[in-house]
Write a structure and sequence with these properties.
The chain has 526 residues and is an alpha/beta fold. 39% of the residues lie in helices and 15% in strands. The protein starts with a strand and ends with a helix. The protein binds ligand NPW, adenosine-5'-diphosphate and potassium ion. Potassium ion binds at residues 58, 146-150, 177-180, 182. It comes from Coprobacter fastidiosus NSB1 = JCM 33896.
Length: 526
C-alpha cells in the first residue's frame, strides 16, 4: 500500500471527483459514513458525544458524521469553530444539512449565561463559535470527535485552537480523531508544538496511513489508528509516485517463491551464521533455528568452541564449526562457498573477533546480513561500509543505527538519514522497531504492518536475522528477503501473542509460529 504525503490529498481527491465521477460532497459523505460505521461499532447509542469541527473539510467530515450519528439515535453536542467566518464549501453544505434535522437546537455563539455548559440532555445541540467559546464539560464517559483539522493543516496550532486542543487533552474523555489528530502534520513534526496536538485514543484515517503514524513519538497523538477505504480512484493511486509503502499481507504473500517438487537441500541453500560467544550462545541457537524453520536447506554455525555442545544439542539439524578459541571467535575462514552469510548475533566485541570480522569484510563479494555486534564493530570502522557488497543487509535497532551513522533526535530525522545512507552505500537498511522500516538502495521505504509490542524481547532480533538469512540462502533477492523476513517474523510474533499473550512470548515462541505464519500467507495466495 502506498503512503502519500498529505499535500497530495487534494490531487487524489480531485481526480476521484472528476473520474469516478463523484460529487465532492458525496465523497465527503462516503468518508463520513466509514467513520460513523466505525464509531457505531464501538460505542453504544447512549454515549454522550461532543464534536469539535473546524472550518475546512475535516470539519465538514465531522458535521456529516454528526448528522449520521443523530440519525442513528445518539445525542450530540456539536461545536463548529468559525472564527474567520469562512467555511469550506463542503463544510458549509454539511452545516446546512445539519440544520434540516428536526429538533436540533442551534445557536450562533455560546451565550454568556450558559457559563456552566453541561451536556444537552434533551436532544442534540449545535453551536457555531465565532468569538467566545465556553467549553462543555468533558467527563470520562464522553466521546469526543475531533474534526478540527486534517490534511490541510498549514502551521502548528496556536492561540484559541491551541487552547481547545489543550482543553480536550486535559479531559478524561475518549477521543476519536478524523483522518489525523488535529494539529499533527502528516509527515514532519520536528518543529511542531506537542501540547497543541490532539491526543486521540483512536484515529480513523482515510485511504492510507500517514508517514507520521510510523514514528514512536507520535503514538501519544494517534493512539490506535485504523485505515478506512473511502474509494480514492485506483488510477490516481497507481499514477502517483511515492517513496513510502506500508506492507500488507497479500503483498508479502506474493513474494513467497514456489519450491520445485525436485528441490534438494543443496539448492535451497547453505546458510552460514557467524555468531555466538561465551555467555551469548543463545543468540546463535535462535538464529540457526529461525533460518532452518524459514526454509534454509543447510545451516552451519561458526562460533566459539564453547558453543559446540550447546548448539549441537539444541539444534541438532545444524552443523558446527568450532573456533580455536573457547570463548570467542578469533578467525573466520570460509573454506567452502555458502549461499548466504550472516554475522553478528551474540558475537561479542573481542579484539580478535573484531580483527577477524574486518578481514572477512575484505573478502566478501556477495551481500551478507550484518546484525547486532557486527554493526557495533562496524561502527568502529565506518570506512568499511563503503566497500560492503551492494545490497548487503544491515539490521540495526535505533541505538545501533545511531552508533553507526550518528545521533538522531527524532524518528523522522533517523529515517531520512537511513534513506541517505542506503542510497549512498547501496545497502539495505532494516531499521527495527514497531513498524520496522526496510530501506532499499534506491531510497524506497517499506514499513512493516505485522508485529506487536510483545516482540520487544531478548533474542527476537537474532530470530529475524536467521529468518532473513534463511530466505537469502534459498535464492531470494536481498530486497524481498528483507521484506518477507520482516513481515513473516512480525506475523509469527502476532500468532504467538494471539495464542498466549504479548507479555508471555519469547523469541522461541516467535520461531514456533513461523510455520503457521507461512500457512497464513499461503492462504492469501489462493
Ligand atoms: N481525499 C481525501 O482524503 C478526502 C479528505 N477529506 C477530508 O478533508 C480534510 C482536508 O480538508 P482541507 O483541505 O479543507 O483541510 P483541513 O484540515 O480541514 O483544514 C483546512 C482549514 O484549516 C485552516 N488552517 C490550517 N492550519 C491552520 C492553523 N494552524 N490554524 C488555523 N487554521 C488553520 C486552513 O486555512 P488556510 O491555511 O487555508 O488559511 C483551512 O481553512 C481531510 O483531512 C479529510 O478529513 C474527506 O472529506 C474526503 C476526501
Ligand atoms: N514494539 C514493537 N512492536 C513490534 N515489533 C517490535 C517491537 N519492539 C521490537 N520489535 C521487533 O523485535 C525485534 C527486536 O530486535 P532486537 O532489538 O535486535 O532484539 P535482540 O537484540 O534482543 O535480538 C525486531 O525485529 C523489532 O522489529
Ligand atoms: K482531525
Amino acid at each position: 500500500m502506498k503512503i502519500f504525503f498529505t499535500n497530495e490529498t487534494k490531487k487524489l481527491d480531485r481526480f476521484t471527483i472528476e473520474n469516478e465521477p463523484i460529487k465532492s460532497i458525496d465523497l465527503m459523505e462516503r468518508a463520513a459514513s466509514s467513520v460513523t460505521f466505525e464509531i457505531i461499532s464501538r460505542w453504544k447509542r447512549n454515549t454522550p458525544v461532543v464534536v469539535f469541527a473546524g472550518p475546512g473539510n475535516n470539519g465538514g467530515d465531522a458535521l456529516a458524521v454528526s448528522r449520521m450519528l443523530i440519525e442513528e439515535g445518539y445525542t450530540l453536542d456539536i461545536y463548529l469553530f468559525n472564527p474567520l467566518q469562512k467555511l469550506s464549501q463542503d463544510c458549509l453544505k454539511n452545516r446546512d444539512r445539519l440544520q434540516t434535522i428536526e429538533g436540533l437546537k442551534f445557536s450562533k455563539s455560546v451565550k454568556p449565561s450558559d457559563s456552566t455548559n453541561t451536556f444537552p440532555h434533551n436532544g442534540s445541540h449545535f453551536t457555531e463559535i465565532t468569538n467566545e467559546f465556553i467549553p462543555p464539560t468533558l467527563t470520562k464517559g464522553t466521546l469526543v470527535i475531533d474534526g478540527l483539522f486534517g490534511s490541510g493543516l498549514s502551521k502548528p496550532l496556536s492561540g484559541g485552537f491551541g487552547s481547545v486542543v489543550q482543553y480536550i487533552n486535559s479531559s478524561d474523555a475518549t477521543v476519536v480523531s478524523i483522518d489525523l489528530p488535529s494539529g499533527l502534520f502528516g509527515e514532519n513534526n520536528t518543529e511542531n508544538i506537542p501540547r497543541n496536538i490532539v491526543q486521540a485514543d483512536l484515529t480513523i484515517t482515510f485511504q492510507y496511513p500517514k508517514l507520521a503514524f510510523m514514528f514512536a513519538e507520535n503514538e501519544q497523538f494517534t493512539g490506535e489508528w485504523k485505515i478506512v477505504d473511502i474509494g480514492i480512484h485506483p488510477d490516481i493511486i497507481e499514477q502517483t509516485e511515492t517513496k513510502y509503502y506500508y506492507i500488507e499481507p497479500d503483498e508479502a504473500a506474493r513474494m513467497i517463491m514456489k519450491r520445485s517438487r525436485f528441490v534438494s537441500k543443496h539448492n535451497v541453500g547453505h546458510t552460514l551464521l557467524i555468531a555466538g560467544s561465551k555467555g551469548m550462545m543463545g543468540a546463535a541457537v535462535l538464529a540457526a533455528k529461525a533460518a532452518l524453520h524459514t526454509g534454509a536447506g543447510l545451516v552451519s554455525v561458526l562460533s566459539a568452541a564453547c558453543g559446540e555442545k550447546i548448539l549441537q544439542t539444541s539444534v541438532p539439524e545444524a552443523l558446527f564449526i568450532a573456533d580455536e578459541q573457547d570463548s570467542h571467535i578469533s578467525d573466520i575462514v570460509l573454506n567452502r562457498s555458502y549461499s548466504a552469510i550472516a554475522v553478528g548475533p551474540g558475537l561479542g566485541r573481542h579484539e580478535e573477533t573484531a580483527r577477524a570480522f574486518y578481514k572477512l569484510l575484505g573478502q566478501i563479494k556477495r551481500p551478507i546480513v550484518l546484525d547486532a555486534d557486527a554493526l557495533n564493530l562496524l561502527a568502529g570502522h565506518t570506512e568499511l561500509i563503503e566497500n560492503l557488497p551492494k545490497n548487503t543487509i544491515l539490521t540495526p535497532h535505533h541505538l545501533e543505527f545511531d552508533r553507526l551513522f550518528g545521533k538522531n533526535d527524532t524518528s523522522y530525522e533517523r529515517l531520512n538519514k537511513a534513506r541517505e545512507m542506503a542510497i549512498r552505500y547501496h545497502i539495505i537498511i532494516v531499521l527495527k522497531g514497531a513498524n520496522t522500516a526496510i530501506i532499499t538502495p534506491k531510497g524506497d521505504v517499506l514499513f512493516n504492518s505485522s508485529g506487536n509490542a510483545g516482540m520487544a524481547t531478548a533474542g527476537s532480533g537474532d530470530t529475524l536475522t536467521g529468518m532473513i538469512t534463511g530466505l537469502l540462502a534459498q535464492g531470494y533477492h536481498p530486497i524481498p528477503a528483507a521484506i518477507l523476513g520482516v513481515f513473516l517474523h512480525g506475523m509469527a510474533g502476532d500468532l504467538a501473542a494471539e495464542k498466549d499473550s504479548q507479555e508471555y512470548i519469547t523469541a522461541r515462541d516467535i520461531i514456533s509460529q513461523i510455520g503457521q505464519a507461512y500457512k497464513k500467507l499461503h492462504n492469501y495466495r489462493v
